[in-house]
Amino acid sequence: MARGQDPATPQAVLDEIYRAEDAESSDGSDEMIAKLEARNREVISHEATHMAAAGGYIKGGASYTYQIGPDGKSYAIGGEVSIDMSPIPGNPRATITKMMAIRAAALSPDDPSGQDMSVAAAAAQMEAQARAQLNQELANKSAPAMREVTDRYAKPAASAGAFVNATA
User: Fold this and answer.
1) I want to staple 120 with a disulfide (CB 3.0 to 4.6 A). Which of 4, 28, 31, 106 is the partner?
2) How do 74-83 and 58-68 pair as beta strands?
């Protein structure tokens, strides 16, 4: 109770109750605030790591989920960074490069979350598809050249009636 107040006044009783509640809850709220502050730092650092690694594939900045602490302040308790996961149309090499960067960004924090692992797996799958597409394109491009080589060196010589020796 504050000095000089009559203990019987309603305000004095309320003041005493508030002081007692503050004393009881300050230990618990201090611990809760410390946990929220630590989580806030962890979440912001985690998302900043994603953003630094993802480069130009980020769609906007990080977004956070907040919790109001006992002190009335907002603390980040979760977060996400939106990344453009679309392939580069008609350019499997660029898609491979992009998916490698996205996979690296998803796995960049020291403690990737389940969602981070899912994004990395999806990027790896898209990278594999782009590699298959690139291999098919390269095979299609090299097929005519291979046919020309085969036609040139494997056909019988018209005048000699024998195969041309490709090593001669």
Assistant:
1) 106
2) antiparallel
Report the interhelical angle of 114-154 vs 92-106 (nearest 10°).
150
List pLDDT tens digits, range 111-128.
Answer: 999 999 999 999 999 999
Going from N- to C-terminal start, the domains of the chain cover 33-153
Question: How much is the pTM?
Answer: 0.67
